[in-house]
Amino acid sequence: MSLVETIALWDEAVAAADKKDWKAALKLFTAVHDPNSKICFNIGCLHLVLGDLDEAERAFDSSIAKDEHLAVAFFQRAITFYRKEMYEDALRDYKEAFNQLRGNSLIDYKLLGFRFRLCACEVLYNTALVHAQLNQWQMAEEFLTKAASYKTEYSRGNTERALDAIMKKKLFDPLVVPVGELFRPNKQQVAQLQKRDFLGKDKVKVVASVVDKDTFSGFAGVQPQAEEAPVKPKTPETLRALEGEPHRVLFEFTAKTAKELNVLPGNIVFLLHKDSDNWATVVFNGKKGIVPFNYLESIKLNVGRKSSQSGEAQAPDIPPPPTLTAPYKPEGPQEITGSITRTEQKPKREYIQVPKPFVLKIHCKFTIAVQIKPGVAYNTLLDVVCKKLAHPPEAVTLSCKAKETGELLTFTEANIKTVWDQAANGRLTIWCKTAQGYGKPLENGINADSCATEKFISQMVALYSFEGSQPEDLSFQKGDIIVILTEVNEDWSEGQCNGNVGIFPTCFAQACHSQRKGN
Length: 519
Prior knowledge:
alpha+beta; 5-stranded antiparallel sheet; 5-stranded mixed sheet; 13 helices; flat
């Protein structure tokens, strides 16, 4: 089977899979002679969807035999073994999939035509599940802890919930490749499957001579055929009328998102509709996208203009170049701050630096963190804190520590500028005192009000290391002692460790002993 036939069947099978016609897609894929590793992988995925686990295993075997470094094939074959309750074989394939990652946190198969990222965290997550199926709960805990250290923004699965399930000796669902995701053929190769007419519409024609008694046969120079017809005057070139109203582009516009189009002054676009946010949906060069509506000027196309009686062609209307200054770009899918000023050559964008929001860390009954614009007024800052704590403004008193003396500085409208001077590295730490007395400053890492009301200070020992991802998180290492300040909810607690205060997952530590105050 030729490469062209293989790509044609591949493309047709993917199209059938996109319509969720799994059997038709499988029939087309199996019609390919000597399929490559990607097509074998697709066949295995379709057998998994249809529930034929034996055929899926054979297909993944073929895929791995043709490409022994295809990590996602090991991952999918491990899923097949797991469903067949062949747990030892599943562990072997998960281990091989992790090895093929070669220490990377993920492999993105987008460049190979597969819209999927295989993450090391997900491989370890499923490995822990297989150990749990074998009643190897300690191994399952270790692999889940290791999975948490490999977690990225693209990783799926909640390792904290899975770890909680393992602690209760319960199972959780495995992570699999999304149904319908397959390797797709190269777009350029698919585009070359279409036949092209390189000669155009006017083909070469063979005509007989009109010269009387012309008995010559063969090839010769130009023969007189007939008197030449009078030359027709040329008509101006007309633009083919497309769907929508024609508009001329006044200013250059550079696309910032996939929905926007790149246009230059003088380009002709066809307006489909104008949105309420002053963006216009247009067609340009066969592509559909959006541009600012106030960058466009309505025009009339010269369609089908006839020549004058004198036989001379009428000159087309050539508009003068635009002389206006480019207007402000309207608010659209992406917010762009700044203004557009005109230069001698072309409009130039000048961007205004917008200050990044500060992290406001609030010590109350427990520690919380919010984002806030630096330098806001006292009433604005107080409103943010009250909404977060669900307290009325009259019941809240805010204060912060002065850099020089370390004494508490109570917030007022008069000294709010001095309060903002205490901020450093994009962060401001404040203390909140309510009418009930919560939120007094921490003394030696322990909340003073909590010490006055609680009889014991509970302590916990860290079972696992925890690296905080948010400003309010408390980071610690395995074996550290954590002093519990308060219980945030059933899953999180606030504590103090190594001089730091923050919140952490309760399941990452266990109670060790309680220490009576004053002892």
